[in-house]
Design brief:
Layout (H helix, E strand, L loop, with lengths): L11 E5 L6 H12 L2 E4 L1 H13 L7 H8 L2 E6 L4 E6 L2 E2 L7 H10 L3 H15 L4 E5 L2 H5 L5 E6 L2 H14 L6 H17 L12 E4 L5 H23 L1
Parallel strand pairs: 1-6, 1-7, 2-6, 7-8
Antiparallel strand pairs: 3-4, 4-5
Helix pairs in contact: 1-9, 2-3, 2-4, 3-5, 4-8, 7-8
The protein binds 2'-deoxycytidine-5'-monophosphate.
2'-deoxycytidine-5'-monophosphate binds next to helix 2, helix 4 and helix 8.
């Protein structure tokens, strides 16, 4: 799709949606296609959960968790398009990627104090634009003025199937029923919490991907981005 906004503004594009819908996969592809950086905000909540578990801090201890947020930093690398996360100088990578850590992240993310402590980090990463930010509350709370807002959804059974394939690919031994139950529980937690619940922003384009392949989702997103960019160009002429 070519590098966007090199001569002018670099946009903020947000992709929200529930667990297992494929946000990270398509956000990465879209970031490569546009030359933008990809911000995976779930990784921040996973980092808080991982640090809590490795330091014997309870996942229910809000002030302890907020303390952990203060040691987290992000490094935006324009060349690779990656945004690296560090906690007290330690590089965060594969250690946060398990299903258990996803569930623990969902628990810590319910606390308003934790969300507040991570808010400025996320906004700072997006302040110069040129970013695809993915998560649960990108369009509603973190980047309410984002240029392009997309909300991906899919039936829980299909999301469980996608997540299972990903986990098996990584060599994890998992059972479809367990993955489906995790997805249902995480949906429940992420949608029904009071602080920044998972929901589409009023101005988001909602795309049901249940019957679409990754390629079809990417094509649909590229079309959405193109038509929004054209609209914004026309209205600024
Ligand atoms: O996208 P993920 O599976 O890595 O996210 C893990 C959990 O983190 C998710 O279940 C809820 C929380 N989260 C959130 O509350 N807000 C975000 N913007 C991203 C993730």
């Amino acid at each position: 799709m070519g590098k966007m906004g090199e001569a002018g503004r670099r946009y903020v594009i947000v992709v929200d949606g529930p667990s297992g819908v494929g946000k990270s996969t398509v956000a990465k592809i879209l970031a490569e296609a546009t030359g933008y950086c990809c911000l995976d905000t779930g990784a921040l909540y996973r980092t808080v959960a991982w640090r809590a578990l490795s330091r014997d801090i309870s996942l229910y201890d809000e002030s302890g968790l907020v303390g952990l947020c203060n040691g987290i930093t992000m490094i935006r690398e324009e060349v690779s398009g990656k945004i690296r996360i560090q906690a007290d100088g330690e590089e965060i990578g594969a250690q946060i990627r398990s299903e258990d850590m996803g569930m623990a992240a969902s628990l810590v993310s319910r606390f308003p104090g934790v969300r507040r402590a991570l808010l400025h980090l996320q906004r700072k990463a997006g302040e110069s634009g040129g970013i695809i930010a993915e998560g649960r509350d990108m369009g509603t709370v973190v980047f309410p003025d984002a240029d392009i807002k997309i909300f991906l959804d899919a039936e829980p059974a299909e999301r469980a199937r996608r997540r299972l394939l990903e986990l098996v690919d990584r060599g994890e031994k998992v059972d479809y029923e367990d993955v489906l139950n995790d997805i249902i529980l995480r949906d429940e937690q992420d949608r029904n919490r009071t602080a920044a619940p998972l929901k589409p922003a009023p101005d988001a384009v909602v795309l049901d991907t249940t019957h679409l392949t990754i390629g079809e989702v990417v094509d649909a997103l590229v079309n959405i981005v193109r038509s929004k960019v054209d609209q914004m160009r026309d209205s600024s002429l």
